[in-house]
Every structure is written in C-alpha cells, then in structure tokens.
Amino acid sequence: MPRRRSSTGSQPSGAGATGTGHAAVMATRVSTACQELIEYQRGVLARWQVADRADVVAIDMLLRADRWRALYRGVYLACTGLPSWEGVLWAALRRCGPDAALSHATAAELDGIAGRHQDSVHVTVPAEQRVSVARRELDRGLPRIIVHRSARLPFAIHPARTPPRTRAEETVLDLAEIARSVDALFSWLSTACSRGVVTPEQIRAAARRRKRMRWRPDLLIALDDIAEGVLSMLERNYVRSVERPHALPQPNRQVRMRRNQRSAYLDNFYDGYGLAVELDGRAAHPVEERWQDIHRDNHFASAGIITLRYSWADVTTRPCRVAAEIAAILRQRGWTGTLRSCGPSCPAASQ
Q1: Nearest of 51, 34, 52 to residue 43 by alpha carbon
Q2: pLDDT beyond 60 at 284
Q3: How many structural domains is the chain composed of?
Q4: Structure pTM?
C-alpha cells in the first residue's frame, strides 16, 4: 500500500505564519479518537462514525485539499494513495452501516475457505435495513458491494474477528443456500471441513437453528459423508458410484499410517483385508509426485497392504469395472460378501 500522507501533517502550501494559517492547520487535524478509528479500520473512516463537529469540518477540508479521498459515499480513505484490500473491505462495511458484517464469499475468503473475489464484496445487513449503492460510487474502481439481508444477523456474526464477519459455519450455510447444485454445495462443505475451519457438527448445529433452508436433506447427507472422511468430490463420487451401489464393504477413510518417521494418509483402507484404494483427482501428475506415490505403495506392500489407484475418469466413467476389481482383491483376502449389480446393464456382478 502506498505511503499515506498524514492528515496531521504540515500546514497547507501558501499558508504563512499568521493566525489564519495556524487555524487552517488546526482545522485539518482530526481528533485522537478519529485517528485511532482510522488505524483500526485500515485507513478508513465513515462520516456517520464522526460525532464531533470539529472533526466533520476537518474531514471536509482534507477532502477539498485532496489529502483524503472518498471511497464509497460518505466513506473516506485518510490518505491519497490506494487502500489495501482489507481497507476496501472496511470501506464496504462502513458504507452499509454500523450493524453490517462481511458474509458469503467474502467471509469465506477471510476464513480461508475460498480464494479472493476482488470484483465484489458481500455484506449482510439486518433484515429491516435498506442499503442501495449507486453505480456512480463504483466509478472509482472499487469492487461492487453485494448486499444481503438477514433477520439472523445478530446471532450469525462472529463475536471477535475483524473485520466483522459471519461465523464460519454460518458462512458455509449461506454459500450452500445459493449453491446451484448439490455438487457445489458439497464442495463448500468439504473445503471448509477439510481445511479445519469448521466441523460437520458445527455446521449441523447451525443448520438446526435455521427454520427454512434450501438443500437441507442433501446438506445433512453430505455432512454425514464428510464426518466419515469423504473430503473431496472424487471421494464422494467413489462412495456414490462405486462403493454403495455395488454393496462393497465400507472402508475406513483418511487412515493415518506410519511410514518410517513420517505419517501417510490412506483415502480408503479396507482394514482386515489389507487393501488400500487411493483416489487421484490431479489432472497433471508430475514425475516427482508420481515416484512419491510409487515409493509409498512399495512401503505399504512390504507390510502386506495392496494399493489400488483410480483416477477421476475411472470413478466417473467406469465405476462398475472399478467395483469389480476391488471386489476381486477383497475376495482373495477373505471377503465373503456379494457384489451387487447397480443396474440392468451393470457388468460388475457377473465378474
């Protein structure tokens, strides 16, 4: 962020050592309380936050002197440079009033659930509040403010994090509500849980507090899967297309194993049968990573564990063949179950 020109700096150009010049300098000094607020809000201050008339006068003079700049209507940056991204978020919040909170994709970004969305900032305000951001306010090159309204906002805001934002579990549910498909819903849930930002139980508890919620049945099923260790879309497709339709036994998922002095995790481990099924969703597989996988498989083979590896294409376009291969190894190792046909044209049960 460019260095800021302090609002408490030297007197303006052309002001002599006169009483009038001294008064002008004093008029462009905002109070200590305002300065502390500006620092806390990453260089941003809203007019509605200023109670002292002298501060209002000082702000107007600083704007006219081009020592401050307007961001959104009634929201200012206390320097002439560009705001930091966090400063932009504070500005969007303050444009929407004292009770606003960052939410949806913006809150997800701050909590490490999603990447940065610099073209827009999502803000939620109380249900009874109306906020309209004019298009001319965006001519300054600032992100568009997308305003959501919620009667639950007082209960959804995190009590301590700054900038103010919704709790992680509330953020995930907000994103799930607007998901275009069950796959998109699952992606938000699994990403938040796999990164340790929130747990399935926390999301489930937050869902119980919502009287009405889109996708509720699908969301609860997805949370059950995630709680069992299904943490990616490929793993979910494995469960839904390979494992359950063909009545394969349920493996332990994300099993931690020791490899020399390091830990390794197996996607699916059929304990008692010595079979690991690894799912690789990477489109590109660099040689170094490929050899790491081979060395790991060789290590576990020395302990009697066979590893089968399948790609996205295997699971999504050849699920019956995958099920038959897994069943064959399981039978060799003592499984007495029956492979079930998933449909009239399924070849798995006949193999």
Answers
A1: 34
A2: no
A3: 3
A4: 0.77
